């Protein structure tokens, strides 16, 4: 699965969970600043992503942007 595939799937999940237009979500998009996501929103997004990719995301990871999340998921899939 390529970075683009991971980004597309993650973008779709974020747009659905946070009720946002997918076109505004880029790798540079910050969850809190750009999407007004609180910690519960981020938890729900991460939960859906863990299910979608069948991975575990460490809660200690500093994931602030969509790009951070894409990089983390891509590394987990490669491991």
From TrEMBL:
4'-phosphopantetheine is transferred from CoA to a specific serine of apo-ACP by AcpS. This modification is essential for activity because fatty acids are bound in thioester linkage to the sulfhydryl of the prosthetic group. PROSITE patterns: CARRIER (PS50075). One of its GO terms (cellular component) is membrane. Keywords: Cytoplasm, Fatty acid biosynthesis, Fatty acid metabolism, Lipid biosynthesis, Lipid metabolism, Phosphopantetheine, Phosphoprotein. InterPro entries: ACP, ACP-like_sf, PP-bd_ACP. The keyword Lipid biosynthesis applies. Belongs to the acyl carrier protein (ACP) family. GO terms for molecular function: acyl binding; acyl carrier activity. Carrier of the growing fatty acid chain in fatty acid biosynthesis. Residues 4-79 form the Carrier domain. Signal peptide: none annotated. The gene is acpP. GO terms for biological process: lipid A biosynthetic process. This is Acyl carrier protein. Pathway: Lipid metabolism; fatty acid biosynthesis. It is found in: Cytoplasm. The modification O-(pantetheine 4'-phosphoryl)serine is found at residue 39.
């Amino acid at each position: 699965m390529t970075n683009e595939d991971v980004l597309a799937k993650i973008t779709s999940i974020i747009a659905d969970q946070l009720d946002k237009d997918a076109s505004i979500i880029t790798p540079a998009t910050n969850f809190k600043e750009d999407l007004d996501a609180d910690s519960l929103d981020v938890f729900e997004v991460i939960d859906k992503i863990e299910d979608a990719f069948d991975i575990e995301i460490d809660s200690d990871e500093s994931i602030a942007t969509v790009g951070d999340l894409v990089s983390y998921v891509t590394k987990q899939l490669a491991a």
